[in-house]
Amino acid sequence: MQVNFASVKLIPIASILKMRGIEMRRNGDFLIGKCPLPLHTSKDVDTFKVNVDGNWWTCYSSSCRAALGKKGGDVIDLICKLDGIDPLPAGKILAEMFALNQNAPR
Length: 106
Known about the structure:
This protein is α+β, with helices and mostly antiparallel strands. Helices cover 36% and strands 16% of the residues.
């Protein structure tokens, strides 16, 4: 199955968080809450932020910054980190969840 990554990246991160039962609260253009990533070991709260309009996420904790090598990413990066998988399987999961056309070029 091919994945149209451009279409997959348009899936709202907020929808994924809601489907996964990850609670966030709205603060202006951002959703804020406890980091759901398995690599997050920091005791800090409210370090996970999602820019709703830009559709990107970040975690400001020292544990995530050290483990990720960067601050965050898009919806595909989120599924990769949540599930411990590579981008292609993450793209396939998202495409199936949202019934996106999988015959489009990658």
